[in-house]
UniProtKB/TrEMBL annotation:
This is RAD54 homolog B. GO terms for molecular function: ATP binding; DNA translocase activity; helicase activity; hydrolase activity. GO terms for cellular component: nucleus. CDD domains: SF2_C_SNF (cd18793). Keywords: ATP-binding, Helicase, Hydrolase, Nucleotide-binding. It comes from Accipiter nisus (Eurasian sparrowhawk). GO terms for biological process: double-strand break repair via homologous recombination; reciprocal meiotic recombination. The keyword Signal does not apply. PROSITE patterns: HELICASE_ATP_BIND_1, HELICASE_CTER. It holds the Pfam family Helicase_C. Gene3D superfamilies: P-loop containing nucleotide triphosphate hydrolases (3.40.50.300), SWI2/SNF2 ATPases, N-terminal domain (1.20.120.850), Tandem AAA-ATPase domain (3.40.50.10810). Residues 280-444 form the Helicase C-terminal domain. InterPro entries: Helicase_ATP-bd, Helicase_C-like, P-loop_NTPase, SNF2-like_sf, SNF2/RAD54-like_C, SNF2_N, SNF2_RAD54_helicase_repair. Residues 1-114 form the Helicase ATP-binding domain.
């Protein structure tokens, strides 16, 4: 997949199977012309460039790492791999289903063609009943049918799927301490949040007109506000707010919001005091550095604009940093990672886009990882956390997730940890999809600000500990709940 991963596979193969030789630094022509090479290790990109030559080779086994890249049978990579002369195929992946069950079909069809029938048959027998059973309006009969078909699909594919969960290697890794820090929103965030919730766009969403509903735009605006008001301010300035705009128009969502900001407010001169999470982050970074000056931190966000804010914050406080996001050239990424992991690295913080560095990266040079924002799909967060808690890590790992109290971020987190109707169906990570569907009642819940609650998630535990108790291993909560407005309860 990545050059670093190709090298990693080469080293692992030579370590475990020294009798084998591999072609890595050599051209495809040398592999074809020499009997010395038993294994070809190649990136997907190089495969496409050299496909004509590689198609002439008869392979005995094809192994595809990060196999979820093959989730679409019509893309060039899948078509190219299918064209190779090789009957034995293996896919390695930690996320076999990222969005929908058709992706799962594509992977199964690649390794075991025909086992699930045609795509139309598969959709009728499995996908449609399973998806329908998970809809908020599903009847009891539809839910029962969906569970039955999910169980059938699991049994059938279980004949050739070998599942290995994180628990298998956990005993070989150093301890991991994961904490959720609930951060109080600032006065500016609260006022803007309330203004957004009273907009005619959100009112339209809650009146049942869900067809072509802009609820995803509304959710995006609330998530920007949770990260920092300046992100919302920038979006407002990019839209010309027309007072007579259509109620579904994005500009009408921002109507009147600019008046809430101070008159001299600009997105370029943002203040940490405007964001509860940024205030907590600043104090958290200071606490980590004070604890041990040799400690290093991976700071993760799903959004490039948020990374820009975090980068500027690093500059303001004199923190040395490096950054990897979607704009970082692929040819430079491994060098950036290797430099950061070196014990001589001057960087205190590694700014990481979860989309660009969600898989493949080894950042064991850091023992602290901070997730600044949360994703609907728990797989995204899990993959980000695995950048530091993995083979090669020598120190106790500390994971911190920052959530804005009472906001949509708490709802997303609760959605992650709540028990799904089809929990564990097919594969565990199929529970959440980026193609999110909501009932009216769910939207009302999402578009509600619980400003009087110290922590809604903690309230759901019905505990009277005032946020001072460690709830690890209790009920569905897998991590301590830390409630902070001034970052006074950061774990050591």
């Amino acid at each position: 997949h990545l050059k670093g991963m190709v090298l990693c596979f080469q080293e692992s193969i030579l370590e475990k199977l020294p009798a084998l030789t591999s072609s890595f630094d050599h051209k495809v022509e040398e592999f074809i012309g020499s009997p010395l090479y038993s294994v070809m290790i190649i990136s997907y990109e190089m495969l496409l460039r050299s496909l004509d030559q590689i198609q002439a080779i008869e392979f005995n086994l094809l192994i595809c790492d990060e196999g979820h890249r093959l989730k679409n049978s019509s893309i060039k990579t899948t078509t190219a791999l299918t064209s190779l002369s090789c009957e034995r195929r293996i896919i390695l992946t930690g996320t076999p289903i990222q969005n929908d069950l058709q992706e799962f079909y594509a992977l199964i069809e690649f390794v075991n063609p025909g086992i699930l029938g045609s795509l139309s048959t598969y959709r009728k027998i499995y996908e449609e009943p399973i998806v329908r059973s998970r809809e908020p309006s599903a009847t009891k009969e539809e839910k029962e049918l969906g569970e039955k078909r999910a169980a059938e699909l699991t049994r059938l594919t279980g004949l050739f799927i070998l599942r290995r969960t994180q628990e298998i290697i956990n005993k070989f890794l150093p301890p991991k301490k994961e904490s959720i820090i609930f951060c109080r929103p600032t006065a500016l965030q609260l006022e803007l949040y309330q203004k957004l919730l009273s907009s005619r766009v959100i009112r339209s969403c809650l009146q049942g007109r869900l067809e072509n509903s802009p609820h995803l735009i509304c959710i995006g605006a609330l998530k920007k506000l949770c990260n920092h008001p300046c992100l919302l301010f920038k979006a407002i300035k990019e839209k010309n707010c027309d007072p007579v705009s259509d109620e579904h128009d994005e500009s009408s969502l921002y109507e009147g919001l600019v008046d809430v900001f101070p008159q001299d407010y600009t997105s370029d001169t943002f203040s940490e005091t405007d964001s509860g999470k940024l205030q907590v982050l600043v104090k958290l970074l200071a606490a980590i550095q004070e604890l041990n000056s040799s400690e290093r931190v991976v700071l993760v966000s799903n959004y490039t604009q948020t990374l820009n804010i975090l980068q500027e914050t690093c500059k303001r406080y004199g923190y040395s940093y490096t950054r990897l996001d979607g704009h970082t050239p692929v040819s430079q990424r491994q060098q950036i990672v290797d430099t950061f992991n070196s014990k001589f690295s001057p960087a205190f913080i590694f700014l990481l886009s979860s989309k660009a560095g969600g898989v493949g990266l080894n950042l064991v040079g850091a023992s602290h990882l901070i997730l600044y924002d949360i994703d609907w799909n728990p797989a995204t967060d899990i993959q980000a956390m695995a950048r530091v808690w993995r083979d090669g890590q020598k120190h106790t790992v500390y994971i911190y997730r920052l959530l804005t109290t009472g906001s949509i971020e708490e709802k997303i987190y609760q959605r992650q940890i709540s028990k799904q109707d089809l929990s564990g169906a097919v594969v565990d990570l199929s529970k959440t999809s980026e193609h999110i569907h909501f009932s009216i009642e769910e939207l009302r819940n999402l578009f509600t600000l619980h400003e009087d609650s110290t922590c809604v998630t903690h309230d759901l535990l019905e505990c009277d500990c005032m946020g001072k108790k460690d709830h690890q291993s209790e009920g569905d909560s897998e991590v301590p709940l830390l409630i902070s407005s001034k970052c006074t309860q950061i774990p050591p």
